[in-house]
Specification:
Layout: H1 2-16, H2 31-86, E1 88-89, H3 93-102, H4 106-125, E2 129-143, E3 146-159, E4 162-179, E5 182-190
Antiparallel strand pairs: 1-2, 2-3, 3-4, 4-5
Helix pairs in contact: 3-4
């Protein structure tokens, strides 16, 4: 009887065992097993694609922010330079000219250097007081680290010949170049 009981227990274990459905009777993988492997591979590929898209989107976003920041810096440099050009006062003529030279480079800086002492003396002799302000500015173009900015500005200008301040309007095309990490005016011209 003990032998019959052992045989019945062995039969029960065999009957309750779950067969591996991924392997067919002939030892090859069944359709379900192949599909499971294919689904796993597709899920892995999809996860890699999502990560790649997230990386590309992040790099694009950061690049756009950097370009926009640089464009804004070009406009700000042009505004600072124009303000230094039109906001001049008798009592601070030398300092005003020094500030203008500090914001300039290239041909424009050379022109200022050649005549800035005479210009400061002329401002003092004529008792010029010009209170300038920037009305608007926009980037017209950019190329690498340089840009062209159109600046609309105005000033209340008085001098010894006309002590009552009169309004002046300016529309200027300002070229900005990056020199040793600084954005400086390299050209200024009136726009009709």
């Amino acid at each position: 009887m003990a032998a019959a009981a052992d045989g019945a227990a062995a039969m029960t274990e065999v009957d309750t065992a779950v067969p591996d459905s991924s392997v067919a009777d002939d030892g090859t993988r069944s359709s379900w097993g192949r599909n499971r492997i294919l689904l796993s591979a597709l899920a892995g590929a999809a996860a890699i694609a999502v990560v790649a898209c997230a990386v590309v989107a992040t790099i694009t976003y950061l690049g756009d922010r950097s370009r926009e920041s640089h464009r804004q810096a070009l406009v700000e440099a042009a505004c600072d330079g124009v303000l230094a050009l039109i906001d001049l006062h008798t009592g601070t003529a030398d300092d005003d000219m020094a500030q203008l030279r500090e914001r300039s480079t290239g041909a424009f800086a050379q022109e200022l250097g050649d005549g800035s002492a005479g210009l400061a003396a002329s401002i003092r002799d004529s008792a010029v007081n010009s209170d300038g302000r920037i009305d608007s500015a926009a980037l017209a173009s950019e190329s690498g680290e340089s840009g062209v900015v159109i600046v609309a500005a105005s000033a209340q200008v008085g001098n010894s010949g006309s002590p009552t301040a009169t309004p002046r309007s300016y529309r200027l095309r300002v070229t900005i170049d990056e020199v040793e990490g600084r954005l400086l005016m390299s050209g200024v011209e009136l726009v009709p």
